[in-house]
Amino acid sequence: MLTVRDYAEVNPVFARPGEPVAAPRNQMPDAGLLPETAYQLVHDESMLDGNARLNLATFVGTWMDDYADRLYAEAFDKNAIDKDEYPQTAAMEQYCWRMLADLWHAPNPANSIGTSTTGSSEACMLGGLALKRRWRQRREAAGLPTDRPNLVMSSGVQVCWEKFCNYWDVEARQVPISLDHKVLDGSDLEKYCDENTIGVVAIMGVTYTGMYEPVDQIAAALDRIQLQTGLDIPIHVDGASGAMIAPFCQPDLLWDFRLPRVASINTSGHKYGLVYPGLGWVVWRDQSLLPDDLIFRVSYLGGDMPTFALNFSRPGAQILLQYYMFLRLGRAGYTRVQQGSLDVAHYLAQSIASLGPFDLWNDGSDIPVFAWYIKPDAGRSWTLYDVSDRLRMRGWQVPAYPMPDSLQELTVQRIVVRNGVSMDLADRLIADLSAAVAYLDSVGAPTGPGANPAGRKSFHH
What we know:
This protein has helices at 35-46, 66-74, 87-103, 120-141, 159-167, 215-229, 246-249, 317-353, 384-393, 423-443, and strands at residues 7-9, 22-24, 113-117, 150-154, 171-175, 197-203, 235-238, 262-268, 280-284, 296-300, 303-307, 358-360, 369-374, 400-402, 411-416. It is α/β, with parallel strands linked by helices.
């Protein structure tokens, strides 16, 4: 059995006179190394990580231009929470969420309110907290119990929503997806909503497959529920990916603040916002939808500062990068970049469908993400896990995983096309995938340790 050595040995080629020849891995060394040697050890070990540009599993941005890199380096030391010391970073944060409020058609962006976060997971939890607090305030004002809140979502939600419900004692009511209802589409919604429902989560870009949930249909279903029951249930749109695709490439799609029932929207700056990790955003339609008692006003480093966040100190550099990207690209530039990713995704999807053994779950026409599965009648003895392993030998990271509980017997493979995944790379991937299929067809099902995918964990992100 392989084990990690307790010491990292210093290669004699770059060791310096008088330095230790080994550094402990699991305790702090008594004596330090020269910076050149410490750098070389860390650099060499990190080479074992995958190539980020070939990682087609992640939604997170892996490339920015040289000017962005310069800004990043200039702002490494800025703490975003210290708004008194770094007032211009705070101002740029406000510029960004107001731009997003305008992009998402808030009725009056100047009356909206928003904040940056460390990513969409934190942004989702802040949106959920605001839903719960408003629901609780309404119930308390009416003299009704507040001990059984629930949140309605599809079974294909990103794991952060399960965390939110677990951490804040909210019942997660998951509407199962199926072959007939691949996303939450408003069907049977009345079976899951009641007086204790704090809101409904609609996803613009399901993590498993990349598909949009039709927010307008969900809103229409909630309108019908209100007519029948009097329940006025708001929507939070988890736009981690799609909120930075739809405004540019599907501008007529109704999913944002044009729908009065949409109370809040989040997105990831570090996904299709085109910024390095980690940065997220959440915006409320207007200030009344963010309860004031959730906002802390603290004296910090000489200034009075309002804050609504789960984290406190965090990097400010990504805020500068987001503002840079908004200025650098504008609407026209974002449209070109996102449409380019959609074109690559559509090309890849159609190419994979033409290989023979695979059926598409979706074709990447919502966000540039799509999934596929082996045709039930394909007659193959190998699995998508085997395909994933073969592609990894060529450096590609293309995950295979089971669908959510209601469809767990179905295994899919998924590709995320990000800025930087070019048509040339797409051609190379298709060639490698074709070779993998030909090889697996020639040898049949792999045997030996690790060949059986049973027990592999579900892929969430």
